[in-house]
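Technical annex, item 7. During the second reporting period the consortium partners agreed on a shared format for inverse folding records so that results from different sites could be compared directly. Each record opens with the tokenized structure and is followed by the designed sequence. A conforming record, contributed by the partner at site C, is shown below for reference.
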């Protein structure tokens, strides 16, 4: 089956909860993700072929998007899926007329930093002591579309 992205459905919630709690330590629940799926400002896109490869959770407000979380399943990392996910995502955001995308990342997250730089994000600010452990967050920005 060809790789593609689709909006998350109820059957995806368990996997999303598992990964959110494992990687982002901001404890979430089935009902919270259910609410997010039904929130028109939040979009959760799943990267899929035969099964799920990863997901991204974004706020989309008019022509601006903010990535809240991005995960490629553990056993599939560093094989180019993150990069291909962004290609699908940028096309989708273009269809939705989104012009700007931002995200926050820990400077210690080398895989994520490398991926975002490769996808054309630039660092525009530092948010001091942003994370629970006191680590700063880097605010990354990318302009989408041609105008
Ligand atoms: C961050 C994440 C989404 C990257 O996805 P991925 O599919 O592994 O990334 P890719 O394979 O497309 O790699 C993209 C680039 O990053 C590099 N990279 C990937 N993993 C790396 C690692 N562990 N260390 C250093 N560089 C790495 C790749 O080499 C590639 O660059 P290259 O083409 O110049 O070689 C994935 O590691 C993940 O899910 N991590 C846990 C959750 C997380 O941290 N999310 C981001 C929160 S901001």
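Designed sequence (site C submission):
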């Amino acid at each position: 089956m060809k790789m593609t992205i689709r909006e998350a459905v109820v059957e995806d919630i368990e996997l999303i909860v598992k990964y959110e709690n494992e990687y982002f330590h901001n404890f979430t629940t089935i009902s919270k993700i259910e609410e997010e799926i039904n929130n028109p400002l939040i979009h959760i896109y799943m990267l899929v072929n035969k099964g799920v490869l990863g997901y991204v959770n974004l706020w989309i407000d008019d022509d601006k998007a903010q990535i809240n979380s991005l995960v490629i399943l553990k056993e599939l990392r560093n094989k180019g899926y993150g990069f291909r996910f962004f290609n699908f995502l940028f096309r989708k955001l273009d269809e939705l007329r989104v012009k700007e995308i931002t995200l926050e990342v820990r400077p210690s997250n080398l895989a994520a930093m490398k991926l975002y730089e490769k996808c054309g994000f630039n660092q525009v600010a530092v948010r001091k002591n942003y994370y629970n452990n006191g680590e700063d967050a880097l605010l990354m920005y990318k302009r989408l579309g041609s105008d």
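Residues 9 and 37 are 7 Å apart (CA to CA). Residues 23, 70-72, 77-83, 105, 109-112, 114-115, 118 surround coenzyme A (CB under 6 Å). All partners now use this format for quarterly exchanges.
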